[in-house]
Amino acid sequence: MSDIAVISSLRSVADSYDALLCDAWGVIHNGVDLFPGVAEALARFRETRGPVIILTNAPRPSSVIPGQLDRIGLSRECWNEIVTSGDATRAAIEARLPAPAYKLGPTKDDPLFEGLDIDFRPLEEAEFIICTGMKDDAHETPDDYREFLKEAATRRLPMVCANPDIVVNWGGRMIWCAGALAEIYKDLGCEVIYGGKPHPPIYDLALNRIESLRGPTERNRILAVGDGLKTDILGANNQQLDVIFIAGDGGVHEGARDAAAVSQKLQEAGLKAIGVAEGLKW
User: Fold this and answer.
1) CA Rg, the chain, in Å?
2) Which residue ranges form the domains of the chain, and what is each CATH number?
């Protein structure tokens, strides 16, 4: 097995691509700070190559994300469109209406439900669950929800998971996401429906946005960038897109970051990437 290529600059591979799908958390920022060099990399790719789509598993509609990126200092000149797991999840929610739902998640995710006439009910009256995360992700862990999930599982309620991420790195601290709860629920033998990475709905939206911006684009001309093996890398592989694996500080990669160690980790996961980078720089 040959070691994966180390990519020190996006510029070194940019000429091979006409569009970029870039993860947010772990690549652009850590929820608090913008990573060095990212703004220039995105802006220069957009200027010299083609559209930049920020592809995030945030369980909220894309309309709320620009303000968040503004606050951490990412110029709107760095991207063309934003596509979220929330965007991709709304269709799954609508498909189950007008059935009553149980809401599992914090109030900060309520923008996901705007414009949808959802009849929220207690668990015993619901016909499906919408999970956006833990109610208090700063202090709770998935173990706090095991008994609740076991109770829900006795009724075989399907769960719509609005964020497949297991964890995100928030300012250096790992925060559990909806995907961690969904994994427990799935292990209990229940149905879980996803819209975000690595699942097709979010990519369908993103590829449609690229086509609307620059016309039909072959998949071998689209580059993805991400830090999550089970989301970004797996999703890109499933969509037959080249991908750069970001393994630096601020993401969710654990373990050694040298080419040999990353190659081994990808091989064990049955995944591939065109290269590994400490961070996204031009």
Assistant:
1) 19
2) 11-86+198-277 (3.40.50.1000), 98-194 (3.40.50.1000)
| Backbone dihedral angles phi then psi of residue 169, each to the nearest 5 degrees | -95, 110
Average pLDDT, the chain: 93
Whole-angstrom distance, CA of residue 229 vs CA of residue 214: 29
Residue 43: φ, ψ to 5°: -65, -40
What digits encode the pLDDT tens for the residues 73-93?
Answer: 999 999 999 999 999 999 999
Please determine, for residue 180, whether its predicted confidence score (pLDDT) is greater than 80: yes
Task: Return the number of other C-beta atoms located less than 10 Å from residue 77's C-beta.
Answer: 12
pTM: 0.92
pLDDT value at 2 more than 80: no
Q: Give the number of other Cβ atoms within 10 Å of residue 85's Cβ.
A: 34
**CA distance linking residue 247 with residue 39, whole number of Å:** 18
Going by pLDDT thresholds of 50, 70 and 90, the confidence category of residue 253 is very low
Closest CA to 161 of 231, 209, 252, 208: 231
Is residue 201 a contact partner of residue 211, using CB atoms and an 8 Å limit?
no
